Amino acid sequence: MIEQLPIKGYLYVINYAEGEESLCRLEMKILLNQSFEDKWILSDIEINPSRSVFIKERLTIYYQADSFESLHEMVLKQPMSFETFKLLFMRFKDQSLEYKERLKRLYAIGSLIGGEADMYEPKQLLGLTELNGKWYFGTLEPNCNEWVKHENKPHSYSFSLSVRVSRSVANLAVGHQFDKKIIDPCCGAGTVVLEVLTVGGNIIGNELNPKVAWKAEENLKHYGYENVIQIGDIQEIKTHYDTAIIDLPYGHFNPISPEIQQMIIENARRIADELIIVTQVKMDEQLKAAGFEVIEQCEAVKGKFVRYITMCR
């Protein structure tokens, strides 16, 4: 049991695909209020690791010490107990312990844990590691990668945002404010709307084309969400929102004129205090002309294709 043990913080293991580092760093800044150097973050902020595509796993730290001997003494005096468990050594860059020494440390700690060790189907994963001379031990929760199932939506478009980028944009929009009123005023098949709902956000999707709006409704229904899609022109939206999210149509995939692009941006300024906009070129001047101030900007790169994610207010 661990109820009597105070949590001393969280260790997040970070991972990102090629071309996603910039987006990952901005998301971690929003969610954990930190940057990182070696793909890990120590934080007092609790985030479900499955919320982000960039968090590989999370160690909830119950014991930490300046030496392994001190950590061992702590566990000896106040051990954990589980029905079944598996203890893993978390590897990081620049760790110097040899394989046999890591096994020795795992055995020393594992022998103090109440319950039965189970290497195949444990009810609790535990993690032990050393970082910059300090030792950490606690419960380990991997990312369950629930977002992967959204790759197979009933309806999608080749030019839509990927699920990974959509999930990250959703986290940028929601942050820690789950009651924030969010709108995707040009939501298409609802890729971003679905991800905002999945991370616990409060969002409305708006779509001009009734046939496309129906596809968005079907996608939400497929994953068990109530319909939050409305049909209409962005210029006719009357309700005011905290944040708007726009994947701005651009280029040969879905061409629209610069005038229509500017109209969409200006209406986003009219209906929302903040904007997260995804574009295929930098549009800082157009955003400024509409009355927005650029706060943060990052890139998501796939091959030669670049998307710019810009946070404005």
Structure description:
The structure is a single chain. The chain is 28% helix and 31% strand. It is α/β, with parallel strands linked by helices. The strands form two sheets. The chain has a seven-stranded mixed beta sheet. Strand 8 (181-184), helix 5 and strand 9 (202-207) form a beta-alpha-beta unit. The protein is elongated, with a radius of gyration of 23 Å. The model has no long low-confidence stretch (mean pLDDT 95).
Could you give the topology of this structure?
Blueprint: E1 9-14, H1 21-32, E2 40-43, E3 55-65, H2 68-77, E4 81-89, H3 99-110, E5 114-117, E6 124-131, E7 134-142, H4 163-174, E8 181-184, H5 191-198, E9 202-207, H6 210-222, E10 229-231, E11 241-247, H7 258-271, E12 272-279, H8 284-289, E13 294-302, E14 305-312
Parallel strand pairs: 4-5, 4-6, 8-9, 8-11, 9-10, 11-12
Antiparallel strand pairs: 1-2, 1-3, 3-7, 6-7, 12-14, 13-14
Helix pairs in contact: 1-4, 4-5
Concise summary:
With 313 residues, the protein is α/β, with parallel strands linked by helices.
